[in-house]
């Protein structure tokens, strides 16, 4: 959906719009079992890394470099089959997306692959609300690098960064926004911690709907 609004809202996905914890965590355990890796951590260790690329997550969870690709492949095979049934919209997410579309151009910037994202958006019947989706395969450097945001702004042909907002739940989203020199709002409905988000942005909201209302009220 493309319009001529002067405001731009960029949404993260997991923990921002989507409740996907069970799908992600259970698929990590599945990959560990399939490859006979004795994972010594717990659910919280996995959840604390959501937002990073899969390769980074596995590395931080103790997988050796030469085995990471094998684990990622196993993860993607299972995630593809279960993600729709184990993923839902967070409370107020649909309201926030619809409200954003009344005054802003809207796109998604995620570390999830587009290949995994698009079927989910279609399944949840929200794909029509977004102009562009930037996923892991679209960039060399994922968040917290500026490349994903700069890439989508280029596709949207946006030059003036004054009225651009990144809305996300982790420090990766906020760091990416800061390095791109755009505004950001940290959300408390996902995986990031309030004290960490507050160090990076003055704008904190309980969820995406409160964030969109904050942006609208600032016009």
Overall pLDDT score: 96
- List unreliable stretches of 5+ residues: none
Computed Rg: 17 Å
> What is the CATH topology of the largest domain?
Rossmann fold
Instruction: Tell me how many strands there are.
Output: 8
Q: Could you say what the CATH architecture of the largest domain is?
A: 3-Layer(aba) Sandwich
Taken from the alpha-carbon principal axes, the silhouette is globular
Q: Largest sheet, described in full?
A: 6 strands, parallel
Beta-strand residue fraction: 5-15%
Quaternary form: single chain
The CATH H-level superfamily of the largest domain is: HAD superfamily/HAD-like
Tally of domains: 2
- Strand order of the main beta sheet, please? 5-4-1-6-7-8
Order of helix and strand elements from N to C terminus: EEHHHHEHEHEHEHEHEH
Number of helices: 10
How are the SSEs ordered, and which strands pair?
Blueprint: E1 7-11, E2 18-19, H1 21-34, H2 43-47, H3 54-60, H4 68-82, E3 88-89, H5 93-100, E4 104-109, H6 114-123, E5 133-134, H7 147-155, E6 164-168, H8 171-180, E7 183-187, H9 194-198, E8 204-205, H10 208-217
Parallel strand pairs: 1-4, 1-6, 4-5, 6-7, 7-8
Antiparallel strand pairs: 2-3
Offer a concise description of the structure.
The chain has helices spanning 21-34, 43-47, 54-60, 68-82, 93-100, 114-123, 147-155, 171-180, 194-198, 208-217; strands at residues 7-11, 18-19, 88-89, 104-109, 133-134, 164-168, 183-187, 204-205.
